[in-house]
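Q: Convert this sequence to C-alpha cells.
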Amino acid sequence: MTVPILAPLLPSDAGNRPLVSIVMPTWRRAHLIGETIETLLRQSCGDFELIVQDDASPDDTRAVVARFRDPRIRYFRNPVNLGMPGNLNVAIERTRGTYVLVCHDHDLYDPTLVKEMVALFEQVPGLSYVHTAVRVVDQEGAPAGRVFVGPYPRVSDGRRWSRFMLTRFDSPVCADSMVPRRVYEAAGLYDPTFAFVADVEMWIRLGLHGDVGYIAAPLIAVREREPGHMYFDRQWEIIATLVEILRLHHGHLHGTRWRALQLQGRIEAHLVRTLLSAVKHGGRAELRKARAHLRRSPSFICRAFGAVVPV
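A:
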C-alpha cells in the first residue's frame, strides 16, 4: 500500500512552532463553521494554530472565517475540490505544531479538549494518537440524547487495539483525534482510495506505530449530519470500502487462515443483516444498490442473497 508522505519540518521552522496544529477541512458549512471556530478559540490551552482548509466551497465560508481576527487562524482555499482525504492531507502538510488535531467544521469542542489530549501525550510517551468519548447534538447544537463513552482503557497496546478494530464495521475512534506530527511523518497521510472512511484505515495503521490513548469524557459534541448529506446515499459503497480496509490490514495483524475465515464470516453476517434491514426499511433504490453490491461479492453466500433480493 502506497500512501502520501508527510515531509518533516525544516530546522529553520524550529523557532516558529506552536504546540498544536488544529486542522479543519471544510466544505459548504458556512452556516456552522463560525460556531465551531468559536469553541476552539475558547480552548484553555491557547498555544495552537488553526488551519482552515476550504475545499472550494460554493458558499460564504471565506467571509465567515474572515470575521475572526485571531492571528492563530490560517485560512486556505483549494482552487478545485479535492474530496475529504485530499483536502485533509493538504491541511496536515501545512502544520507546524508538535501535535496535529483534526477538527470537523460542524462539531463543537469543550474548552479543555486540547489541554487534556496534550497532557495524556506528555504523561505517556510513545502514544500514536489520542481519542475521546463523544456526545451527539442536533443541527441546532442541542443534546440529541446520545453519549458514547467506550469501555476502553486509558492506554491500549497499539497492535491489540488495531486487531480490535478489525472486529467492527464501525469505528470506535472519533475522527476528531490528535496525532503527533512525527507519527504522521512515519506512517504517512490519509489514503484517498478509502474516501469518506479513510480515517478508519488511518487509526488501524497508526496502531502499528505506538499505543493508543483514550479520554473517557465526552469532550466533543458531534453534530448530526444534515438531511441529504452524501453519507446517507452511500451506505453500500461505504460497507464495500470498510471490507477492503479490513482485508488490507488483516494479513499482517493476524495472518492465519482460521482468522481469515472468521473475518469472512463476520463480513457475510454483516452484509446479510444490512440487506435484511434494507428489505424491511429501504425503498426500491436502496434494494437495487444492495443487489448490485452483493452480486459483485467474492462470497458465494453473498452472491446468492443478491440473486434473490426483491426490487
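Residues 257-281 form the longest helix (25 residues).
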